[in-house]
Write a structure and sequence with these properties.
This is Bacteriophage lambda head decoration protein D. The structure is a single chain. With 140 residues, the chain is an all-beta fold. The chain has 2 domains: 59 residues, no CATH class; 62 residues, no CATH class. It is 0% helix and 43% strand. It is built from no helices and 12 strands. The strands form 3 sheets. A 5-stranded antiparallel β-sheet has the order 1-7-5-3-4, with no helix packed on it. A 5-stranded mixed β-barrel has the order 8-10-9-11-12. A two-stranded antiparallel sheet has the order 2-6. β9 and β10 form a beta hairpin. The two termini are 29 Å apart.
């Protein structure tokens, strides 16, 4: 391919909201931290191999369904999650570091000796929680 010599209409995937197939026997709650696990979306849990992709935009009940029977809308961006406690509490000194998944609303400072997946990059912290960039780009 040669370099451009004129304007180009470059196709793109829109940032913001994406749809993913929901895991079997799963309920996803609006506002919860969403992760991909083996190609389907589910609420975040303490586990390895999960890919944090954003926040559920609604409640999606696939409790009686098979994987992919319904789809969930997930927004990428910076969200305020609950802060862990004790030695895993995130502080201002951790801004820029990775946060790790505790559950579908809580993040921690460490991966708990390799038992947690990354939630994203810590962007800020306030009295109400931890602001984390939660999308594919935040983890690399």
């Amino acid at each position: 391919m040669t370099a451009l010599s004129n304007d180009r209409n470059t196709p793109m995937l829109a940032d913001g909201i994406k749809e993913y197939p929901v895991a079997a026997s799963t309920i996803c709650y609006a506002g919860g931290l969403a992760v991909l696990n083996a190609g389907v979306i589910e609420p975040a849990t303490t586990d390895t191999g999960l890919v944090a992709v954003g926040r559920f935009e609604g409640r999606y009940d696939n409790s009686n369904g098979s994987a992919g029977d319904i789809k969930a809308k997930v927004r990428q961006g910076v969200f305020r999650w609950a802060n862990s406690a004790g030695g895993d509490e995130i502080t201002a000194a951790d801004i820029g570091a990775l946060a790790y998944i505790v559950d579908d609303q809580t993040v921690a400072k460490t991966d708990d000796t390799g038992s947690r997946s990354a939630a994203g990059r810590i962007e800020d912290i306030d009295a109400n929680g931890v602001w984390v960039r939660t999308d594919f780009t935040a983890i690399s």
